[in-house]
Write a structure and sequence with these properties.
The complex is a heterodimer of chains A (482) and B (94). With 482 residues, chain A is α+β, with helices and mostly antiparallel strands. Chain A folds into 3 domains: 3-293, no CATH class; 300-413, no CATH class; 421-481, Arc Repressor Mutant, subunit A. Helices cover 40% and strands 20% of the residues of chain A. Chain A contains 15 helices and 15 strands. Classes of the chains: A alpha+beta (482), B alpha+beta (94). Strand 9 of chain A pairs antiparallel with strand 3 (87-91) of chain B. The complex binds zinc ion (ZN). Zinc ion binds next to loops of chain A.
Chain lengths: 482, 94
Amino acid sequence: MEFETIIGLEIHAELSTKSKMFCGCSTEFGGEPNTRTCPVCLGHPGTLPVANRKAIEYTILLGLALNCEIARRSLFHRKNYFYPDMPKNYQISQYDIPLSKNGFLEIDMGDYKRKVGITRVHLEEDTGKSIHVGESGRIHGAGRSLEDFNRAGIPLVEIVTEPDLRTPEEARNFMIELRAMLEYLGISDCKMEEGSLRCDANISIAVDGVQGTKVEIKNMNSFRALQRALSFEEKRQKEIIIGGGKIPQETRHWDEAAGVTHTLRMKEEAFDYRYFPEPDLVPLEPDPQIVEELQKSLPETPGQRLDRFIRKYGLPKDTARVLVYDKKLGDFYEEAVAKGGNPVAIAKWLAGDFVGLLNEFSIKVENSPIGPHGISELILLVERGVISGRMAKDVLKEAFQSGESPAQIVSRKGLSQIADSEEIALIVERVVDDNPQAVRDFLEGKEQALKFLMGQVMKLSRGKANPTMASEKLRELLEKRQ
Amino acid sequence: MVISMEDVEHVAKLARLYLTKEEKKMFKRQLSDVLEHARIISGIDTSDVEPTSHAIPLANVAREDEVRPSLPVEEAVRNAPWSEGGAFMVPKII
Ligand SMILES: [Zn+2]
């Protein structure tokens, strides 16, 4: 039996407008329950929704960035369902005529690239939040739910992909690519932990080219969770098939703590949303001239920036990826390069030690105590031979913790490395005199001995000797002894 | 098309409406009229008529992305039978 995993994704991203989709309530995250509600988003009878122009523009912009066709005429529909997280008992969404469709996004898997079809990108409103409270005995002895509608009505884009993904890793990379795209377009905060970016998946296993049954997975709250859930599901389905069983069509829930999926509802229990055109909102007919202007205003995409970093600065792809797929880190990098210093060295330091420190102290790049100027200063200190790479590591960490500039730290602590050839010669001579055994070992061909002698030079200079100069001097002296 | 008194009572119960005897009679007549109206309309041949989603020839009505004051939270939950800490309280869902 030949297996092929088939994955499609459905992604929801909140748009970063100031006000909600159909009313003027603020979209700011948090806030006490229902402090950002009004008669429109509370679904009071007699109120009328009015669409947010910015949200429509953002959706078109995303459609264009994902190479979609923009509809010349698009409609809002009511999606009816009975669940208390929407006070109207329906969600205003789009159905058969979305704002954009038929696009693609290419992902880079290192060894290969994959073009992933985008079925549609549409605009809708987010739902409220239910807080389920356990058995309390307060409402007729039953448990209860608390409804907060601050989030209800926040503009939401839904992005549906074709079933073009073949591995859980591809699904994860797709999300990384899409999140970066949203970030570069500046249209969403993409905070998975705050729920402003969410992802559901469809997965099936084709056997010998014959399509399998699609299973929908929900509740994956991080990229890692997405990959883990899909890997679990891929394995589960293959095992059933190998065992001669059948995969039922169903929706499954990912349990992050247990690392498993379990049945949420079967196909027979699927909802009928009774979609119908929203009579309170007139159709959208995007002006071709505005669409063209939006097309022209598209910023550099993450993929384009990656190519530019590799071409213009000569960065290795892996390093460039670290910088590009966090837009703010990419911006930080370009600012540092503009201040001076070797672009490859700056990239290496940012993608390595700097990112390490950000993670260690849980600080976001935009709040880093050391700015692009400080990084440039540090790299220039290394380039000019004032400090060694080893010393730079400590200086960076100290600058990161104290907020002091690298140059200040170097001068305050008297850290400048010894790059004076006469001074280095003196140290090296002393080491050679003091370690006759190691010198003999080296002369007998034991390369290891050289490392030991270098270690002694660094020790004697308290780490300050310029390593390149010291090692040259050492070899020179040893050759004389031969 | 006539609906029964039981139908009216059932619908009223689902909508949590408490109707008097006179109201029930009135709604029985009105709802029957509505259904009769729909029955007549459904008899019309619309095979060559485009589906209409909106009756007025208007498109692109939108507003600027500007924040306007929300309701004070006490106002927001005032009509709710139950609320707690500003949140609407509903019977357990799942
Ligand atoms: Zn509102």
